[in-house]
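Bit of a strange request maybe. I'm writing a small parser for structure token strings and I need a real example to test against, not something I typed by hand. Could someone generate the tokens for this chain?
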Amino acid sequence: MDLYQQNILDHYKNPRHHGLLPNATGRGEASNLACGDAVNFQVKLAKDKITAIAWSGQGCVLSQAAASLLAENVIGKKREMVSKYNNETMIKLLEITPGPNRLRCALLSLDALKKALQICG
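Reply from user aminoacidic:
Good idea to test on real output. This should exercise your parser:
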């Protein structure tokens, strides 16, 4: 299977929920020092549910597409459910199994989102 399959390329070229979220209740950032990729998530919670989300960042196709896919997937979900997301969740969202060198790129957005949710209290 091609690493940059159609869905990943679509999310990279047409990112969902990309930008800044005014009045976010939580913000989280993660970066990969090995390659320079970075992702920043901002979330708004109401009744412990993600009601709004935005992300920004720079990096490879995989890290940026993963952020878009994750943002699209978690909107409207309870924080408790999203806090249980793990490596397998991201691999299912991406519909690929990245190699060891690319795995950190695929997981970067999940790290940033979890940090943002922790800040929300």
